[in-house]
Amino acid sequence: MDSERLIVALDVPTFKEAENLVDMLKPLGVTFKVGLELFFSEGPRVVEMIHSRGGKVFLDCKFHDIPNTVAGAARAASRMGVFMFNIHVSGGIEMMKAGLEAAREEALKTGTAVPKILGVTVLTSINQGILKDEIGIKENLEQKVLDWAGLARLAGLDGVIASPKEIRSIREQFGPDFLIVTPGVRPRFASSDDQKRVMTPEEAVLRGADYIVVGRPITRAEDPVKAAVEVIKEMQGGV
């Protein structure tokens, strides 16, 4: 279903706000992203709530630590039964492999499905100037995303998180089976907020995104269901 390819970011601070949004949007068949604010405010019970309503969860906590610590976090994510979680590629191949192997082992032990594991490349709030002047990476931004996507693939991850601007290059280099999850997507009716590298849902799908992530244009809309339906329609225009 096209609607499953829309990941709604539940970037809200309370369980009740998240619950209300899930109750409104779950009938559309969308996937839900639980990020740092909500997860650290309310904990795993948010994931359990979404699962209890038949929803799928992308746990967006961007693991980045020594391999042993990331392995432990990956086991916990796998035990929760999340559909997808992510790891920072900049932590290196050993760290990514540790997370992947731990998640697979835990899924086998608990009889749950193995989560999709995605590598975080360059955050969508970062542009070329920030990458060079603040972070100290002189490389062209798109090339750095491709380099890190290559490391994620080498580590055995299922795909990457990347901005809409890099979708086409990643798809051309790594083929149709490498998942691309794309934040920084803003429907025609919304502003770009703090995202630097943005694109519409239709453009993102046309370029080859498997999933798109949309938060505030839906969750802060006067009518979140109507906004989500509009995003799905825009996505379908790109299929």
From TrEMBL:
GO CC list: cytosol
SUPFAM superfamilies the record matches: Ribulose-phoshate binding barrel (SSF51366)
Single GO biological process annotation from the record: 'de novo' pyrimidine nucleobase biosynthetic process
Annotated GO MF terms: orotidine-5'-phosphate decarboxylase activity
UniProt superkingdom: Bacteria
Pathway named in the protein's UniProt entry: Pyrimidine metabolism; UMP biosynthesis via de novo pathway; UMP from orotate: step 2/2
PROSITE patterns hit by this protein: OMPDECASE
Name under which the protein is recorded: Orotidine 5'-phosphate decarboxylase
Family listed: Belongs to the OMP decarboxylase family. Type 1 subfamily.
Native species: Koleobacter methoxysyntrophicus
Quaternary state and interactors: Homodimer.
Binding site for substrate: 11, 33, 60-69, 124, 186, 195, 215-216
Job description of the protein: Catalyzes the decarboxylation of orotidine 5'-monophosphate (OMP) to uridine 5'-monophosphate (UMP).
Catalytic activity, as annotated: orotidine 5'-phosphate + H(+) = UMP + CO2
SMART domains noted in UniProt: OMPdecase
Keyword line: Decarboxylase, Lyase, Pyrimidine biosynthesis
EC numbers for this chain: 4.1.1.23
PANTHER family (alphabetical): OROTIDINE 5'-PHOSPHATE DECARBOXYLASE
UniProt domain Orotidine 5'-phosphate decarboxylase: residue ranges: 5-231
Residue numbers annotated as active site: D60 (for ompdecase activity), K62 (for ompdecase activity), K62 (proton donor), D65 (for ompdecase activity)
InterPro entries cross-referenced by the UniProt entry: Aldolase_TIM, OMPdecase, OMPdecase_AS, OMPdecase_bac, OMPdeCOase_dom, RibuloseP-bd_barrel
Coiled coil: none
